[in-house]
Amino acid sequence: MNNQVLVFDLDNTLYYAGNRVEDAVDAKVRDFFKCKLHLNEAEAIRLIKDIRQRYPYDVEALDKEFPFSKKEFMNFICDVDVSFLPRNKKLNELLKKLPQRKFIITDSIIKHVHDVLKAINVDEDSFEDIFDGHAMNYVFKHDSQCFVNFLRRYNLKARDCLLFEDNPDNLCAAKSVGLATVLISPEPTKKYSFIDQSFPDIVTALATLAK
Question: pTM surpassing 0.70?
Answer without folding.
Answer: yes
